Amino acid sequence: xxxxxxxxxxxxxxxxLIDIIDRIVFSTPGPLMLAAVHQRFARVLFLLxxxxxxxxxxxxxxxxxxxSLARDETLGWxxxxxxxxxxEEMSAGNWAAAIKLLEKLxxxxxxxxxxxxxxxxxxxxxxxEGENALALAAIDRFTKLYPNHERIDYILYLKGLVNFNxxxxxxxxxxxxxxxxxxxxxAREAFDSFKELVARFPNSPYAEDASGRLTYLINMxxxxxxxxxxxxYRRGATLAAVNRAQAVVKQYQEAPAIEEAxxxxxxxxxxxxxxxxxxxARRVLQKNFPASVYLKSAYDPTxxxxxxxxxxxxxxxxxxxxxx
Length: 324
Known about the structure:
- By secondary structure, this protein is mainly α.
- The chain folds into three domains: about 5-70; about 80-145, Serine Threonine Protein Phosphatase 5, Tetratricopeptide repeat; about 170-295, Tetratricopeptide repeat domain (Serine Threonine Protein Phosphatase 5, Tetratricopeptide repeat), CATH 1.25.40.10.
- It has 14 helices and no strands.
- It has helices spanning about 5-25, 30-35, 35-70, 80-90, 95-110, 115-130, 130-145, 150-165, 170-175, 185-200, 205-235, 240-250, 260-270, 275-290.
- The longest helix is centred in the N-terminal third of the chain and has 36 residues, at about 35-70.
C-alpha cells in the first residue's frame, strides 16, 4: 500500500489557493469581473492550482502501480516455473511461500497439467503448516472435482493423516492427557478414510501404513467408548454403561479395551438382575483374558486397573474373539 506522506500538505495548500482565487475572481463584484485580462489571469491561476493538487496524486498512484507490479516477480512465469519454485519452497519447508505459489499456479493455469497437482500439494502444504481445516477443505474440494483421479488413494491417505495427527500435539505429550478421553470425531474420520483406502486400493503403496494406523485407531476408539461406559457406570446409569460396553465388544474385537468392556457387562448385568447374561459375559472374559484382574475382584469404575493385553495370534485379523 502506498502512503502519500508529504503530499497531503501540498494538497491542502492547493485547495486553499483555489478557494482564494474563487473568492477574489468569482465572488467579488466590480470591474474585475468584467475585465477579460483579469479573467484570463484568474483562469490560468486556477488551472495552475488544480495541477498543483492533481499531478502529485496522479504521479503517486502511478508509482503505487509500478511498485506493485515490481514486487510480484512471478508475473509472466510459466506453469513449469511456478511449480518448480513451489516444489523448492516445499523441499525447504517454507510451506506458506509454497502455498502462495501453488495458488497462483492454479489461478493462472486452471486447465493446465499442473492445476490438479497444485491442488494436491496445496492440501499437503496446509497440513504441514498446521492448518488442518484448510487442508481438509482442499482435500474435499479435490475429491468433489476429481472423484476418479488416479491419485485418489493418496488423497484418502492424506485425509486420514490430517485427522489422525489431530489426535495429539505437543501439549498433550507434556500433560500426559489420555487421548482416549478426547472427542473421537477426528479419530473416526481418520478411521473411515484409512478403511476406504485399504478396501478400495489394497495394492496402493499407502495401504500398508494405513492398515497399521487402523489398528491403532481401533484401539483408540474402543478405549474411548469404554471411557464413556465407565462414566455411565460411575454415575449409576448401569443400562447405558452395559449397552456401550456391548457395542465395544461387537465392533472392536481386536482391541485390548474389550477386557474392561466385558467386566462392565459382567458386573452391570449382575446389578440389573440378569444373572444369566452376567455369567455369559464372565465366561467370555475368562476365555479370552484368563489372567484378567476383573475376574479376581469387583469392578471399580473409579480405578483404572491394568489390563492383560493378549498378543495377536495372527496379523491383520479383525475378529479373533472367542465366545465358546
